Amino acid sequence: MIDIDVLVEALPFIKEFYCKKILIKYGGHAMIDDKAKSSTARDVVLLKYVGMEPIIVHGGGPEISRSMEKLGKESKFIKGLRVTDEETMEIIEMVLAGKISTEIVSELIKHDGDAISLSGKDSSLIYAHKKPASKIDEEIVDLGFVGEVERINTELLEMFLEYDVTPVISPIGIDEDGHSLNLNADTAAGEIAGAMDVEKLIILTDVRGVLRDPSDPSSLIQKIRISEVPGLIEEGIITGGMIPKIETCVKAIENGVKSCHIIDGRIEHAMLYEIFTTNGIGTMIFE
To answer: If 0-12 CB within 10 Å is exposed, 13-18 middle and 19+ buried, where does residue 23 land?
Structure first.
């Protein structure tokens, strides 16, 4: 039996977001569990069929670490950023562009979507520069081939969207000398969202959103204005790995994105609940 009330509630949102771009930062459990992968792909295809224009940027940190371990190479992180030498960069490209991105495309095609796997290097999609050495805990640290985004080749993405093809993007940048650079997937997603003037940036992760009390799932904060962010960080409500995600959202909104959403990719159809219902399911950040 079809729940007519759900369809009726979704209608105004379908109308509002028709022909609008939606950027999905795909990460966490939603990328690992087979059932979650299938559900996420099906939801992305549904967004396409109701008239939206999805773009996917994916992560892959755990898979990179596992591949490095198999190859006998130790992963090293400083302040959450992977130290990336030349060999590590090769492994990152192999895993992100050669494995994960193509698997996501295959899953979308399985559900009658049309998608293409893109590295940020393709046609200089993500032009970047090497992150300069910086002082961390009184020590000068060089992270190696870790990049910062300079500009996005929006024409390439617009071309694929015009032909109803969903871009699936690996967060790998290219510099002026043709070197590959490892990019933070959240940051890359935010930069692309701003450059492409997307309506919504949706970050799939392994938590419900921002919680006032981490031990209490019912303490979810459903809506946060960007002006409230500094205070929530100061209070210790936004902490740890949530800080860079929120900072990505703030920058994306400052660059023109209408709203950002942090949701739990482990919940089946989380994206649809967040986009097509009044209350949503995660935390929405807006101006």
So the answer is: buried
Q: Which domain holds residue 147?
A: 4-286
CB 238 within 8 A of CB 229: yes
Residue 204 DSSP symbol = E
**pLDDT tens per residue across span 236-276:** 999 988 998 999 999 999 999 999 999 998 888 999 999 99
Contacts of 94 (CB under 8 A, 6+ apart): 67
pTM above 0.90, yes or no: yes
Angle between helices 34-49 and 101-110 (to 10 degrees): 60
Task: Compute the distance between CA of residue 158 and CA of residue 132 in angstroms, rounded to an integer.
Answer: 31
Q: How many domains does the chain divide into?
A: 1
The CATH code of the domain that includes 86 is 3.40.1160.10
